[in-house]
Amino acid sequence: MTHSPRKIIIDTDPGQDDAVAILLALASPEDLEILGITTVAGNVPLSLTQKNARIICELAGKTATKVFAGCDVPLKRKLVTAEHVHGKTGLDGPKMADPIMPLQEQHAVDFIIETLRAEEPHTVTLCPLGPLTNIATAFNRAPDIINRVQQIVLMGGAYFEVGNITPAAEFNIYVDPEAAEIVFKSGVSLVVMPLDVTHKALTNRARIEAFRSIGNEVGRMVAEWADFFERFDMQKYGSEGAPLHDPCVIAYLIQPDLFTGRHISVKIETQSELTLGMTVADWWGVTKDPANALFMGGVDATGFYALLTKRLARL
Ligand code: BDR
Ligand code: CA
How far is CA 263 from the centre of its chain? Predict the structure, then answer.
């Protein structure tokens, strides 16, 4: 059966794993129509994330993709970045030339608002891969767009895996917990890819070599990025490789049966200094709180890497 591609906006802070997610989406036009890529401050400051998004589009030869710059600081807090994971540029690893393709003049938040108002209701899916500042700002400024969103499929949070930036919190939620709270309370259908999933989608030698042996420029770059950032997680967790967090979001849109999860209540801690940004997930159903998210817990990692390798070979 043929179906028309799902319209998405990718909201991102690249980041090597964001880069792989964007490449997977760019390689999948039969499944996904990318209306725009909106960038936000996160892994590195906005001046770099907006540039990195354009570098990635150029690498894929998709220079007509619209890239927007959005919020450069979280709603209420000072920006926390993650150069210790992603390197100074956010895309450390292979050397990449500065992009030539232009940055759109419109602010990312205005683009999100305008697009949701212009498209038919429930036809646009938001795919946040970084802190939720742009999405929450759009919802605050234009509440009428909230019930026009088809779905939000995001990478963020953790439950059994607890935290990666603090003992209690995952990076994307921790950086802007107030924004996350707005999104999790918005009533929009949410699919959440937490660390519980992404830490089961680890790179290993064979998977990285499969990227390299695709034989195209994209395969080489992805292999080099993976080589760069796996050193951090291997040292930290003693694991075999590193998680490719953000591509789980795009893989879900293409092949949802790779993932398993539960419809549960998920709340964001915004008060406690100790557990700020924690995603308090009622996995065991110990409250009667209504479910606001499909919170994922499992992934077929072999299928996930097979999908990635197959699709990246098209670029
Ligand atoms: C998330 O934080 C970033 O470092 C990654 O790009 C991913 O979006 C994982 O906690
Ligand atoms: Ca990210």
Answer: 20
177, exposed or middle or buried, with CB in 10 Å at 0-12, 13-18, 19+? buried
Distance CA 125, CA 216 (A): 30
Q: What percent of the chain has pLDDT over 90?
A: 94
For the chain, the straight-line distance linking the first and the last C-alpha, in angstroms and rounded, comes to: 25
How many separate domains does the chain show?
1
Under a CB-based contact definition with an 8 Å cutoff, are residues 41 and 79 in contact?
yes
State in Å: Cα 185 to ligand 1 middle: 22
Whether 286 maps to a domain, the answer reads: yes
1 within some domain: no
Task: Give per-residue pLDDT as tens, 254-306.
Answer: 999 999 999 999 999 999 999 999 999 999 999 999 999 999 999 999 999 99
Quote the CA–CA distance of 202 and 210 in Å, as a whole number: 14
Give the sign of the dihedral formed by CA 225, CA 203, CA 166, CA 235: negative
Phi, psi of 190, deg, nearest 5: -115, 135
Q: Which of 24, 170, 245 to mutate to test the pocket of ligand 1 (most atoms within 8 A of CB)?
A: 245
Give the ligand whose atoms come closest to the C-alpha of residue 170.
Answer: 1
Nearest to 182 by CA among 216, 209, 213, 142: 142
Q: What's the CA-to-centroid distance between 43 and ligand 2, angstroms?
A: 7
Q: Would residue 245 show up in a list of annotated catalytic residues for this protein?
A: yes
* CATH code (residue 124): 3.90.245.10
Instruction: Give the domain extent around 45.
Output: 6-312
Of 135, 176, 237, 246, the one to substitute when testing ligand 1's pocket (max ligand atoms within 8 A of C-beta) is 246
Q: What is the DSSP string of 176-207?
A: -HHHHHHHHTS-S-EEEE-HHHHTTSB--HHH
Neighbours of 107 (CB within 10 A): 17
- Residue pair 273/77 in contact (Cβ under 8 Å)? The answer is no
